[in-house]
Design a protein that fits this description.
Blueprint (H helix, E strand, L loop, with lengths): L7 H12 L6 H10 L10 H10 L4 E6 L2 H9 L4 E6 L5 E9 L3 E5 L5 E4 H12 L5 E6 L13
């Protein structure tokens, strides 16, 4: 769970590591992110998040999200996503999303287990698509040498 205002990116990466079966602690990962200068008191930029996924050998695909349906299609493959969910045009928030139902997305980062309403997300995506800002996501792919058995955040 996120421990301070700007740690949403690192927490999303920690959740991805745990999902693919790797051990990851908040303390050790935060030290790592700071040591490679990909995180500071303001948070983590999207390109930094991409670089850390590569450095940590987390297989992923990057997407520009144009609709809720885009998110559902990825999740329906059984893969979670790290969503760069813009709160405003100047502030982003990364959320680890693992599944969906007809009306909600099941997410981690905001709290231990959070529901995001699809209707609200659709409104956000629609409004941002009218601007130069876009909602983006990283699909976390399963690693052949790791499994998601016993996944616990």
């Amino acid at each position: 769970m996120q421990q301070h205002a700007s740690s949403c990116g690192p927490i999303a990466i920690i959740n991805a590591l745990k999902y693919i079966g790797r051990t990851a602690s908040y303390k050790s990962e935060m030290e790592y992110f700071k040591s490679i200068k990909e995180f500071d008191s303001h948070g983590m930029w999207p390109d930094a998040l991409s670089r850390v996924l590569i450095k940590r050998s987390i297989k992923h695909k990057y997407y520009v999200i144009e609709s809720v349906l885009d998110m559902e299609k990825i999740l329906d493959k059984g893969n979670p996503i790290i969503l760069n969910c813009l709160i405003t045009t100047e502030k982003a928030h990364y959320i680890f999303i693992i599944s969906h139902s007809p009306h909600i997305f099941r997410a981690y980062n905001i709290e231990e287990n959070t529901s995001l309403w699809k209707k609200t997300m659709a409104w956000n995506i629609e409004n941002l698509n009218k601007s130069k800002y876009k909602i983006t996501a990283w699909e976390i792919l399963k690693d052949s040498e790791y499994t998601n058995k016993g996944f616990r955040i």
